[in-house]
Amino acid sequence: MERAYLGDTGIRVSRVILGCGNFGGIGSSPAFFGGGESLEQASAIMDAAWEAGITTFDTADAYGGGRSETIIGTWLRAKGQEVRDEIVLSTKTFNPMDEGEDHGLAPARVRRQLESSLRRLGVERVAMFLTHDWDPDVPIAETAGVLDELRAEGKLAAYGLSNVDGAQLRDALAGGSFGWVQNSYSLLDREDEQDVLPLCAEHRLGFTPFSPLAGGWLTGKYRRGEAAPPGSRMATRPEPYEHLRDDRIFDALEAFERLAVEQGTTPAALALAWLLADPRVSAVVVGPRRPQQLEPAVTALRTSIDRKAIELLFEPG
């Protein structure tokens, strides 16, 4: 598995990062807490990731209401110190841990939440800690201040931002030493090319995109005129992707699938290879629901592509 430095943080991450948002829930939504992958299922995914050389695991305090971090901690204890020493953990805070609980990036809350994350993960520090969203009620410099304190105390090695736009990133860079950005980015979600990616390049920040397959749209699972497969993202939480139900998008996806077949690969592997070929992308966060769904990411690392030819398929008509 290839490794890359995360911007100027000095942290080396596997170029494929295991996203653990479905362990014990479906993301941060309280409605799905207790769902998602069980301990046994999640452990099988983590085993497969470890065997593939994936050593960076991404979670958040609110994933599954804390269950994701607890599951990772249980797996780490079962594997022993030799694995614990190799795994690079990334977690986040912003969202409430349950219905009616507090949220945000107030300094006291950030400290409390990181310390609770460390307990659930069973570790004394995490390498990577992210603000999971932008808090309009708390000056970003105040959040950066407590993150600097936590870093000085040895509880985190570096901190970054998630779900930010260009203006927010500029504010953050003026107020703290943020080391990377983790945003949604894919062939079907390229807004970050306007401001965020250029800023990352200018300031030598890392960039670790999530949703690299656009909720499954870049895997070929959604077909024109057909219902979404049961249990898929479009069958359970379709709202962020409803705008993709468009003939122009289906035309592009069908051409993309033909290109993948011509190259002897899959649309998912081709979409991930497009991201990994961008020198601004440090690593890509993938969230498999089964161990075998890691294969496209592993394949992508050894897939040669013509980025421009792929991009032309998705250009507006």
Q: Spatial order of the strands in the main sheet? A: 9-8-7-6-5-4-3-10
Query: What portion of residues belong to β-strands?
Result: 5-15%
Average of pLDDT: 95
Number of discrete helical segments:
12
Query: What is the CA-based Rg, rounded?
Result: 19 Å
The total beta strand count reads: 10
Percentage of residues in helical conformation: 25-40%
- Class based on secondary structure composition and strand pairing: alpha/beta
Q: Which shape, going by the Cα principal axes?
A: globular
Order of helices and strands: EEEHEHHEHEHEHEHEHHHEHH
Largest sheet: 8 strands, parallel
Name the poorly predicted regions.
none
Q: Distance between termini? A: 38 Å
Secondary structure layout:
Elements: E1 3-5, E2 12-14, E3 16-19, H1 39-51, E4 56-58, H2 67-79, H3 81-84, E5 88-93, H4 107-121, E6 126-131, H5 140-152, E7 156-162, H6 166-175, E8 180-182, H7 196-202, E9 206-207, H8 233-236, H9 247-262, H10 267-276, E10 284-286, H11 295-300, H12 307-313
Parallel strand pairs: 3-4, 3-10, 4-5, 5-6, 6-7, 7-8, 8-9
Antiparallel strand pairs: 1-2
Provide an overview of this structure.
With 317 residues, the chain is of the alpha/beta class. It contains twelve helices and ten strands. The strands form two sheets. It has an eight-stranded parallel beta sheet with strand order 9-8-7-6-5-4-3-10. Strands 1-2 form a two-stranded antiparallel sheet. Helix 2 packs parallel to helix 4. The longest helix has 16 residues. The protein starts with a strand and ends with a helix. The model has no long low-confidence stretch (mean pLDDT 95).
